[in-house]
Design goal:
Its EC number is 4.2.1.10. The protein is of the alpha/beta class. It contains eight helices and ten strands. The structure holds 1,3,4-trihydroxy-5-OXO-cyclohexanecarboxylic acid.
Amino acid sequence: MKIVSIRDIHIGEGVPKIIVPLMGRNEEQLLLEIKTIKQAAPDIVEWRADMLEEIENLEVVKKTASTIRDALFPIPLLFTFRSHREGGNKIIDDAYYQKLLENVMRTKAIDLIDVELFSSNVSGIVEAAHANGIYVVMSNHDFEKTPPKEEIVWRLRRMQDLGAHIPKIAVMPKIPTDVLTLLDATYTMKTLHADRPIITMSMASTGVVSRIAGQVFGSDATFGSGMEASAPGQIPAGELRKMIGVLHTT
Ligand SMILES: O=C1C[C@@](O)(C(=O)O)C[C@@H](O)[C@@H]1O
């Protein structure tokens, strides 16, 4: 089993890692947010760059990336531009998505990058990440429903085949047994197919149990909110840490 190690954070080993999103709209808000979320001692911070007002200005994006890096170091930084079709804040075209990701990777201000499975030229982006020494968290989100177990496992396997260091999927439950489907898919992926860390979650209030207990079934990290949640069902990172601690006391 491959472990993803960034300084003293080892994803895929020990207790699940807590990832806290940064949702600020500009540098000033982001710096304030960083001060606040540091109190929750996140293992990893995710910059949700689709929230940035000036996301279409590459110079601003690159400068903001290094400002965040300096304020956070040594906490590992995950860069995410979440597309609108997968629940993100802003619509950009495929060409700009790739250009944005490649520019940010070249700054070396980040440790991990989110690459959506269904974006165009995934292989090209993954290649650029490998060339820059940045870990790929490949992702897929379904805000409408929970696909069948076989489909969830297929998507996670496809991410692994495409060179993701960490495959990730977030799905929406309509009924409580949809959460079981997600957890069952997680367990099958982890025990039969995965040779690396994976991250899975079921969203909204019905899915909260998956964010707390996901590691029992094979998920290696979980998202907890800082100042603002980035998806439905995220609970505050401090509370999440306590609950995960309870699951790991015996
Ligand atoms: O992919 C994910 C997972 C997520 O959607 C969640 O449900 O916690 C939150 C996003 O910020 C992150 O990029």
